Amino acid sequence: MCGIVGYIGDGNAYNVLVGGLHRLEYRGYDSAGIALVDNTGKLNIYKTKGKVNSLEAFCKDKNTESKIGIAHTRWATHGEPSDYNAHPHFSEDGNLALVHNGTIENYKVLKEALIEHGCHFHSETDTEVLVQLIEYIRVHNDCSMLEAVREALKQVVGAYAIAVIEKGDPDCIVAARKSSPLVVGVGDNEFFLASDASPFVEFTDNVVYLKDEEIVLIRRGEPLKLYSLDNKENEIDVRKLEMSISQLEKGGYPHFMLKEIFEQPSTLHDCIRGRVVNDGKYITLNGVNDNKETFMSARRIIFVACGTSWHSALIGKYLIQDMCRIPVEVEYASEFRYSHPVLTPHDIVIAISQSGETADTLAAIKIARGMGAFVYGISNVVGSSIPRETHSGTYIHVGPEIGVASTKAFTGQVMVLTMLALTIAELKNTMPKEDIERIAQWTLRMPELVEKVLGLAPDIERLSLIYTYARNFLYLGRGYSYPVALEGALKLKEISYIHAEGYPAAEMKHGPIALIDAEMPSVIIAPKDHLYEKIVSNVQQVKARGGNIIAIVTEGDDEIRKIADHVLEVPEVPECLTPIITSVPLQLLSYYIAINKGKDVDMPRNLAKSVTVE
Ligand code: G6P
Known about the structure:
By secondary structure, this protein is an alpha/beta fold. The protein has three domains: about 5-245, 4-Layer Sandwich (Glutamine Phosphoribosylpyrophosphate, subunit 1, domain 1), CATH 3.60.20; about 250-455, Glucose-6-phosphate isomerase like protein, domain 1 (Rossmann fold, 3-Layer(aba) Sandwich), CATH 3.40.50; about 455-605, 3-Layer(aba) Sandwich (Rossmann fold), CATH 3.40.50. Bound molecules: 6-O-phosphono-alpha-D-glucopyranose.
């Protein structure tokens, strides 16, 4: 949430920073801004409400000459989206400019103290308090900006990734992080700084991931210097970036979301590669076989996650209970952290997060570790915080997901969870070897089968036209298809702003059935599984109340075809793999409906890709 970019080098800082902001726009897009020091030593700050395009338009006739700068794209937490609440914020004397991602929880106390000392504020943000505090310390202690940043951060409670520049020192950026991500790109005579590496992937593949409570001093022409908050110098660990520029472009698709939906055959392939081997005879997943005893003796598994990742977790529950016979609980990370959880060292907590940065999930991990549970992480972004905070874990390897509505990460997570369940089942001997092998072989076919499902796109596009102006939708499913119903409804809500509710199909008769009429379509996920006959009667119940039905069914299903208004046929797969197959048509349906409504599917209002605040 909120994207930060910084640059020092011989290139045009404005171009690098604005290009970087476009890449980070998925993190927030209600306002944007940039601070540059020109060659006369003047600090120019330009900021506007709206997307990065508005900032570019605003800067057209401005002086953007500079070889150093910082920039920001915002997702508002404190203070409405507006020009004056946009970052960068600056100290009252105009000496410092600062960008910030995170939340300063004690900002009110700090602000009051600064006001007493004569400071005046121009915005409602917590960030302005931080920049004023740094400058106050710098002036009053007569110290360097680095020292002032360190002293200020010691007084701060909350989460931050910050970058600061000083008018009088156009060769230096000081940056720091705690609970919000920050990565430095090391180029030839130039440095980049960003919330993730996407802004500078075409310039360098040498990166340094900052750790919590680390401060970096980036000085032109000198090696990087890393310090802890208590002023110890830390070692620099330069890593190679695993990201390519083509992954960050739309590749001919009108939107990232559509590109990511269509990428799923290849992302699923990448996700399985090297893990299901020897034609399904052997499955290996990072962090499981090297913690055999822990997984074999686990008395309980608790998933913690948010949003779409929570829906994957729910599928994980069905998979692990079915295959491994371990009791599973699924918790919203935000609720878990404040629920006085009862954990023991015999519990495994599995955190799922595409970004690896979600604040609530990170907090849940810390609590679980503190209570002695073993914590396993499933993330997508290499080098993010969650893999660092967990005892062990694995990546889904689906490449950068830019569209705010998660698609390929969802199917990647479900695939990893399937492999995880199969691995544990094998260790615990809770499933016949031939069944494990049979499902493992089916996982290898999933890329090809998802490709087939994508062939439904033209039909779904036509179907979407009929329902574009529906005001409410109901999504129903049972068993493995219940989390799919939740995820289908979430996809529609997120990008088309149509109210949609996902419900366990059998629960419908305890309330939602009262809503059904010709105005409210129901999307029923009804593949041939052990609950098929049950869901057929749910389909009939909806029809009997005059509801319109879009059913996702298994190829050759004639029974539901006779009742439903529209059917979308998907290939037959083992029950545990149906979510990967049935979720794809729902992704397409929500995409086309949002497009018909003229919505910005990649940047839906009020949302952000990664939520690094509570
Ligand atoms: C935000 C995103 C969702 C995502 C959720 C959890 O709300 O818009 O797409 O599912 O955060 O994010 P995570 O990165 O932890 O999976």
